[in-house]
Amino acid sequence: MPATDIAPVTPRLSAIVVVGERRDRIGRCLAGLLAQGNLAELEIVLIDLEPEAAPPPGAEHPCVRRLPLAPDTTFAEARQRGLLAARAPVVAFLEEHAAPLAGWSAALLRAHAGPWAAV
Question: How many Å apart are CA 64 and CA 108, to the nearest integer?
């Protein structure tokens, strides 16, 4: 496995995604995240509200941490659990139906290098 494909010890960016019963929508999102050029700086926190279902494709990648929660967990609670699990100083919430473009995570980290509190 190339060095760029291993999970970082201390990531620079935590991408938090909540997935539930609409599992058909997470594939593009995870594929887009796993295609980022700076994958070694990224951790993907996948909050799974269907813990009995098969993990979505890509969830087995070393950069992905799948946190199963009960199906009755609210979206706000799920995001909060993701935030508490995040290890990076920069956190981004993504919707499972959105696919990040190439270079998204690097651009986000560059933007956070500025003198502002939020991007």
Answer: 19
pLDDT in tens, 15-35: 999 999 888 899 999 999 999
What confidence tens digit (pLDDT) does each residue in 35-55 have?
Answer: 999 999 999 999 999 999 999
Helices (H), the chain: 26-34, 75-85, 104-112
Confirm if 42 and 60 have CB atoms less than 8 A apart.
Answer: no
Residue with the two structure tokens 């956070």: 112
66 backbone dihedrals φ, ψ, rounded to 5°: -95, 120
Cβ contact 118:50 at 8 Å: no
Residue pointed to by tokens 């502002």: 116
Are 12 and 79 a contacting pair, CB within 8 Å?
no
Q: Give me 79's structure tokens.
A: 């995001």
